[in-house]
Amino acid sequence: MSRDSINLSSPLQAYIRSFGMREDADLAALREETANHPWGVMQISPEEGQLMALLVRLLGARKTLEVGVFTGYSAMVVAKAMGPEGKVIALDISEEFTGIARRHWAKGGIADRIDLRLRPATESLDALVAAGESNTFDFAFIDADKQNYDAYYEYALKLVRRGGLISIDNVLWDGKVIDSSDQSADTVAIRAINRKIHVDSRVEVSMVPIGDGLTLALKL
């Protein structure tokens, strides 16, 4: 029978993490350290990371893009899923947050698979396009400042190959997307990108109620 997506209780969430995913010691150590960080709420959930790893393997991805790194969990997930032949181009502006990431990437033996570029993401994305790297990425993950989501999405459409996948985090925005009283700039930007992708004929789309909401857009 058909039904709505299930509302997860804490015990059910724990069950999913016990039986619905696999997280190695490197990922667990990074996630646990980040959980104690003042901005730890920005970390993706481990089950979202597991889904990303599965998608990357299904794509046979070898070159991926990440806009917004924080402490590096998602980049580690993707780098591990691709294996030693894969490369993640990871974009961020924070030395502090990515310092945690670099330490864990090195400890996990995957630092050589991640090319971290610290400058405003639009500058790095411009440089990738200028270098002729359009249509060469297999997968992109966008999880950065919300007011630039539209720009990041458009760059991802240029850089990801046909048949590649663009994933966008925080699309449910802790439920604020349906709170009409919330007209903050970030919430308005999330609503706008959700509306745009919904009708965008350049992609096939599925909004997945995992973590804080994850949109998957397959480039046609």
Give me the count of strands.
7
Choose one word for the global shape: globular
Order of SSEs: HHHEHEHEHEHEHEE
Poorly predicted segments: none
| Integer-rounded radius of gyration | 17 Å
Structural category: alpha/beta
- The average pLDDT value, as a whole number, equals 96
Key terms:
220 residues; alpha/beta; 7-stranded mixed beta sheet; 8 helices
Outline the structure in words.
By secondary structure, the chain is an alpha/beta fold. The protein is 42% helix and 20% strand. It is built from eight helices and seven strands; from the N terminus they run H-H-H-E-H-E-H-E-H-E-H-E-H-E-E. The protein has helices at residues 10-19, 25-35, 46-59, 73-82, 95-107, 121-130, 149-159, 185-198, and strands at residues 63-67, 87-92, 114-118, 137-142, 160-169, 203-208, 214-219. A seven-stranded mixed β-sheet has the order 3-2-1-4-5-7-6, with helices on both faces. Helix 3 (46-59) runs parallel beside helix 4 (73-82). The chain is globular, with a radius of gyration of 17 Å. The mean pLDDT is 96.
